[in-house]
Amino acid sequence: MFFYLLKRLALVIPIALSVTVVCFSLVYIAPGDPLSTILPSDASIELIATLKKEYGLDKPIPVQYAMWLSRAVQGDLGTSIATGRPVNAELGRAIFNTLILALFGSLIGFSLGLAFGTIAGYRQGTWIDKSVTALAVTGVSVPHYWLGMVLVIVFSVYYNVLPAMGAGPSGDWMWDAEHLKYVVLPAITISVIPTAIVTRTVRALVADILGREFVTALRARGLTDRGVFWHVVKNAAPTSLAVMGVQLGYLMGGSILVETVFSWPGSGFLLNTAIFQRDIPLLQGTILALALFFVGLNLIVDLVQTALDPRIRRA
Amino acid sequence: MYRSFLLQRALSALAAALLLTAASAGAQTTLRIGMTAADVPATTSQPDSGFEGNRFTGLTLFDALTMWDLSSAEKPSVVIPGLAESWAVDAKDKTKWVFKLRKGVKFHDGSAFNADAAIFNFEKVLDKSKPHYDARLVAQTLPRMPTLKGATKIDDYTIAVETSEPDAFLPFNLTNLFMASPAAWAKAKSWTEFAKAPVGSGPWKFVRLVPRERLELEKNVGYWNKNRVPKTDRMVLMPMPEPNTRVAALLSGQVDWIEAPPSDAIPQLRSKGYQITSNPYPHTWPWQLNVAPGSPFADKRVRQALQLAVDREGLRRLLGFNAVAAKGVVFEGHPWFGKPKFDVKYDPVTAKKLLAEAGYGPGKPLKFKVQISASGSGQMQPIAMNEYIQQQLKEIGVDVEFDVIVWETLFNNWRLGAKDPAARGAQAINVSFAWQDPFFGFARFYDSRMVAPRSVNWGWIQDPEMDKLVAKARGSFDAKARDIALSKLHERAVEESYFLFWVHDVGPRALSPKVKGFVQAKNWFQDFSTVSMQ
Description:
The structure holds two protein chains of two kinds. Chain A is mainly alpha-helical. Chain A has 13 helices and no strands. Helix content of chain A is 75%, strand content 0%. Chain A is globular.
């Protein structure tokens, strides 16, 4: 286990480096001017050239990359061209807001997904199974953007019981009922896909495990349903965790669409703004942070899976 | 006994009513606005996010030496004194102006506005040797005042401003240079820190900024213009780039005012009692043509033919009538409109005739490409509008192809000009623009020197007559003479049709019934001081 951990940690370094190269170079592949975020439409080419020099954007791209990387490893992701604020500060606040959304989204998505999937797996072939499957397919198919707007129309406009946008009445998050009202609609919206995917995955796993010979053997030995259930959970856990881990990563990435519809100031909203503003330092910093988060999350999921499943350890 | 009981009840009711009145009189009123910007515009004193930035974090927190008159919905908005009470150009050397500054004005931090403060603000965009010079502020400012060279102090309330060439447009340009408090900058030591607690002299004072979420302002009761002390106590500005989110926020009562509601939401908002305000303002949505030799638009007959080929009323219908049919750069009735000999209207018969004279017809159809964007500030509904025009031109045998690109890239290509490979063979480009400043509306397009890399004469207009008219307008320092010169310039612009003029936006806004007193000026900017909340 220890050597497995070492091996996985060693792999993280080249993966992270590759991520930095991709993050850095992607923004240069897209057409347009990197200073368009601060330049009005009628800025002359001469002014642009002067400003490129001021911002160090006139240097060769490999040199810019080296300078950026050397700062990034020290935790300095640079300064937003659009706002002049440190990227770290912008990102920190955005990630915190997305974490809140991801927390509630995953609470809803994973608990509903586990519950529905398990019930459907145990009731395979019945109308319950079919209904849950239909719900899951709908959940995965329905566009976020549309669902978010429908929820707003119903709960904010028609019934006026929940706010339509924002992360709170004052801009500073607090763990109170007034602020929690703001997270309800975006959390439900963002949880729909993870709910559907976890439901389908758990349903398939549970149905498969229940059909295995060892379960028949366990029942033949007189194990109660509760006992069998525990074995089903243990066997379904590694794959379910892997799927939930990926979904958590997706939630943490912040849905650009959901956060834009609800003006939720998370990492998706930030990424959206950075893309349209072509705010290169902010874009690079945000993509890097989110990509490294995925790398870290995958590592944790692998380690947890290994801890839970001895077969992976032996392999 | 019964009488004394009744008297008791009456007195209690009166006391309760008085208490309620006192309470509501003491309650603060707040105006909450949903902006189209994705972030709160920069509060450094030179806002970003285009003119929406100037509207919300320029003219609210700060003043400029010259300002726009935003008091009327009927008259065109003109430049009036701001922190400068008067100005005049030196009769002997027209590159020098003398500005007399307003006395008794204080910044929000109590420091005085005077010549030193004014010079400080010129230096922030002109003098690289100064610590308060900042590249970001330069980027937002200098393109709007291309001939500004420097400023010097004459006495405590008089400064001299110098331009690189005689330029009568300077007072217009200076509406974009906002005056920040040097004392506040000295404490902050950088514009990034200054932006966290900006200090100007404007009708609104800074209260709180939550980046990307909200900007809270309170009224400046000591504002130097007593007619413009805000009637609302507080104003909260929230970025909401998604149009449907803005509508939902208004309908659910989270905001009291939204910018640019989508046209299809307007009937619903009206039916629910919301106020929809609009007014033509100095905005034009055109196609800018490549008129360089070799382009089909080098022939004036072709340009005029297309000008006549589109039913602009149909375009207005498409936009829910939230637009005005364009007959030139400026709208009819503006002092710069003049009396063009060529009438921009829908006349497909004459359009076909002109095309035939130019050698185009069924045997040799006119085909060309236009670069357009899918979205963008001021671009209205570019895909739907362009497709409508494409269909209309098809009816007279003209084939139009679109090269649809991202708005920021379109900007970039605009600067590079029609001859650059970035144009990808396009003979026209669709970029809307503001024209409330004569440099913005005319000089940067029609002056032959303003080709890339200098400015946005994208289509390579090289018209000596136009150059003379631009020079004359630029050299007319008397306001009336300048307006006449600009009207002559406009007449030629319409007759030559270097641009195809389609529509002007009317800047629709949706307001809660509680919002009273708003006067929507014919301007990109608006005055929030007159607004009160019921």
